[in-house]
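Task: encode each sequence below as structure tokens.

Item 1
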Amino acid sequence: MIVAALLAAVAVLHRSPRPAAWATLGALVLTPVLLLAQIWDSSQLEPLRDRPTLFAALGAAALVAVAAAAWAMRRWPATLPVAAVVALPFRVPISSGGTTSNLLVALYLVIAAGALGWALAELRRPDDGREEEIHPARRLEWALMGFVVLYAVQALYSDDFGKALSQIAFFYVPFALLYARMRRVAWTPRLLAWCLGALCALAVVFVGVGFWEYHARELLLNPKVINGNEFASYFRVNSLFFDPNIYGRFLAMVMIAVTAVLLWSPSTRLVLAGGVLLALLWAGLVLTFSQSSFVALLAGLAVLGAIRWSRRWTAAVAAALVVAGAAIVVAAPGALHLDLGSSASADRATSGRYDLVRGGAQLFADRPAQGWGSASFSRAYRRELDESTERAVSASHTIPVTVAAEQGVPGFLAYVALVALALLTLLRRSSRSPARAAVAAAFVALLVHTMLYAAFLEDPLTWVLLGIGGALAGLPAPDGDEPATA
């Protein structure tokens, strides 16, 4: 697992194409082998393990699909970024051995094809010793891959090594290969428009499905949400996602991108059309009842306001809103069903997050130097703090707390460095382009969402935003004082 993380780091960080290509191929081969070795004896793989012919046929079909997609992406380079953006939201439920896993099958196909096509093309070229120039995102990439390698190392003493391996194999390594390709895409205005258009089309479809679910009072996916709606006073929709909060996060990101375009657009017709689209997406977001997505959207819009107009006035308005909200909580806690002196009330108001955050802080205090090991939060929480709880499924729902509890001071410092360098890279000259502003604001919104929910580097959207933002940071800034329209 550590070798796989190191191969991914070389694929991202090495300035010479040939070593990076070999590392990419190594990661592509090693990661699925590790995963198969981990789950080979599990019930999930039993239907395929007992039928080797079917297993071989599926493997051959996957290789053919990857090879065909790789050829298409080399033939038409714009196919890779557009396909990656389109595949981002789709998780396919695969039932096997009595359990169901929701996998990013389409995205994995895109990543494998893009990485394979690029690596083979680089290895066929003569080795002329060329190296990539120093890029503005260089420090960010070192922080990003440093965190991934540290995560793999700290899995050695984890209470849940299997989950840590799954995190590396399903998320960190493939998404690092995705980042490497997205950061090296030539992001032209036309390509950016295609990607945004694809996201808007997907969002409209998802909202339509959500409207149908709300009208029919039926959900297509996720039994937990279905059962929760039966006992709640409101009906939450999740469209084609497995979680209303992830659905809300996706809609918030698209709304931020659309708003960025409108803020820099001189076209009245485009502004009117964008306003209608935003109204539609807002209606879809409301039906998720995802408070974390509402807060993330507000944070992203605040960043856009600060970039487009005034940081000082945006900060003043944000501070006034925070003070007003705090005053309402203190003056009328009963209206919000809060008891300021009761931790149980705070836990109910935050859907169980208060106790999880407090427990995560306690876990960190017990082992500050090394933490409990990567991906160990759930088991450590149940064993050390509350054996009866069923809420600590995977994390504290506050990423910094989860990182601190699992990885201790080293992991927390690596996380802080990653976030700081990401913000510095993405916010650099963000006022010169709506694309840069959109990526920066969307990343801040996603970061805020992870403070209230989960999934930071486990979400491919994080890596795509960093890849696009890193690529745009390397472009020369437009001349003049006026913002660019591209």
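Item 2
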Amino acid sequence: MGHPAGLSTLFFTEMWERFSYYGMRAILILYMTVSIEDGGMDLDDKVAAAIYGLYTMGVFLLALPGGWLADRYFGLRKAVWYGGILIAAGHFSMAISFDGSFYIGLVLIVMGTGLLKPNISSIVGGLYGANEPARRDAGFSVFYMGINIGAFIAPLVVGWLGESIDWHYGFGAAGVGMVIGLVQYRLTEWRLGDVGKVPEKSIEGDDSAMRSRIRTGIITGIVLVGTLAWLWVIGLIEIDPVTLANVSAYAIVGAFIIYFFYLFIFQKLDTDEKKKIAALIVLFIFSALFWSGFEQAGSSLNLFADRYTDRDIFGFTVPASWLQAINPLFIILLAPVIGALWINLGRKNLNPHIPVKFGFGLISLGLGFAVIAVASVYVAENATVLPTWLIFTYLFHTTGELCVSPIGLSAVTKLAPKRFVGQLMGVWFMSTAFGNLIAGLIAGAFDEQVIANDPSLLSRIFLNIVWISVSAGLLLLAFYKPLTKLMKDVR
């Protein structure tokens, strides 16, 4: 397809990593809220949604230190390898049924994804020259299609195993997928050439001593968090997930401010670099807004599928988690089309600027929630609705995602100074982390008992998301020219 050979290595590695992540994600909140008699945890909706938000936040939040370690110590490629190992270990831990193993597994997946996720995306950007921005955008769209092939297969396999046989079998299947990805990565790594092989900025001092300190820190962190999780499970300490989620939201905003203060004051950026990073800050903010709505898919929309959707087809009850495959299926179908569109527009010098693409993405997200808000009116009348409502919601969300996610990843590799590309890719995922956390907190408002007493609550919450998303998109469209000046017309 005219892309570097190394793209196929990264395509399949990320495909299997996303199989593991989205497979587990498809059953996570269902497992936490289902009764103990049915093999679940029987948690309150608000608590389960907070844990879900904290987990998905952590997955992306640790991308910042993961990018830093890769930039300064591991190199991008080793970070991907070590991250995959931790992810597989986390899924297998969740497959074991004993007190605390569930939470230890979540911690391992969070740490592993923090290493793998930002750095594999940075390697993709490194395969392309600075003078081929449209081709790079197309490459990221192809890469994104690989992500969604894994995300499409995962709910069908992991969801069926989890909901129909045993939840822990589902978690184990996610781990097997990650192992397949690791084997493929090691066998075809040679295709990447020298991209990501060494750190952009090595740590000064004794390499072996630094390796030992980092290894000790990682092991200590795992043991500490695992011990806290076990003490919480057996009741020796009390942790309120909802309070922890709210505190974490403020902590992320604080970390965001501190990091960019450090970058602007202490890193000797030139004027051009400062302008481009300022533009990235704006994109990060709107990215967080987008993901706070989009990531309702695994929480509130997943519960909507389970509780308010008629899933009976000729006597067979479709697992609720299978509807999580709709979004990646649309991406598989639409990603090549959108990627070709950017290239063709680029040849005619009509490729929309990055803020314009973001604006369209947010508006499309809002339209998707408008669809499910209408469906919620029927739910308020004590009726279940057809899956087509969710299918059209996911269609709008998919078009929005293709205007935001691959474009945002590509924007970081275009705008970030080369010596900070891993870190700023980590900050991109930090904005995603914040959006995921807010999505979990919003989902906590969809408590089944509360909705039973106030049926119109569903549509009201969804309509609020509509107004916020559409307004944010229109704001970007209105002010795209000043932003493009900061970007030096990078598209």
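Check on item 2: The longest strand covers residues 312-313. The chain has 18 helices and two strands.
End of task.
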